[in-house]
Design goal:
Elements (H helix, E strand, L loop, with lengths): L1 H8 L1 H12 L6 H12 L3 H13 L14 E5 L7 H9 L5 E5 L6 H4 L1 H16 L1
Parallel strand pairs: 1-2
């Protein structure tokens, strides 16, 4: 909830805090600025609603009813979602594939782009068979 208040009172500061939470490894100054700028393109009230959605809605009963192919990618060192909770999501969606990434945080696609892209490509290729 602290992030919601920060997004309203200090949107740029909140975005900088999110970048810190989203990444295990510090980005270059140029990348940090780009990430913060991108987050700031989303109006604070939208960011607040996204945070509320993530923290107030309980989807556990819904997960077993998902019947679409699902790839769940989790970061073992995420500061946003605990890896056990994220893995639990994959365990409770029928047929889901769960992949746990090491040495990265929430933005695993940024910190481990080759592995992330390979996971997505492999997942899609299996669907096409």
């Amino acid at each position: 909830m602290e992030t919601c208040f920060a997004a309203k009172g200090d949107p740029r500061g909140a975005a900088e805090g999110l970048v810190n939470a989203y990444l295990k490894h510090a980005p270059s100054a140029e990348d940090r600025k780009m990430l913060v700028d991108e987050i700031c393109k989303c109006p604070p009230y939208v960011r607040i609603e996204i945070m509320r959605d993530h923290t107030n809605l309980d989807w556990r009963d819904f997960l077993p009813h998902i019947n679409s192919p699902t790839l769940v990618c989790c970061a073992r060192e995420s500061k946003v979602f605990d890896v056990h909770g994220s893995a639990w999501v994959g365990e409770n969606i029928p047929g889901a594939q769960t992949v746990i990434f090491e040495d990265c945080s929430h933005m695993l696609f940024w910190e481990k782009p080759k592995r992330f892209n390979q996971c997505v490509i492999s997942f899609i290729k299996r669907l096409r068979k």
